[in-house]
Amino acid sequence: MKTILLAALMTLVAAEAQAISRYDPTRMSCDRVQATIARQGAVILRYQSTRVPGLPLYDRYVRDERFCDLGEVRKRAYVPSADAKSCPVFVCKRPDFDRRFRRRFLQSD
Fold it and tell me: Using CB atoms within 10 A as the burial measure, which of 31, 54, 61, 88 is most buried?
């Protein structure tokens, strides 16, 4: 029974990962990139690194925190687009509580 349940859960996870659309933001205007994310809620943007030739970069960009996993928050990020070097978008990240703790701890000394 556990094997069947595990197999069903893995199938759902795989189906969710395949459902998200992928785009190249360097072939779209910044407004179109932002509109696509707003319309679909979450997309994967894939583009080439400007610092390391031939290195593909990609991430999942979201409209709001409803598209983030539990424990993640929406953070601003920037991607290249056809008409702008840095188009503002949002990505889900885990908050870095450890950094805040260290800052407070070091300031209290």
Answer: 61
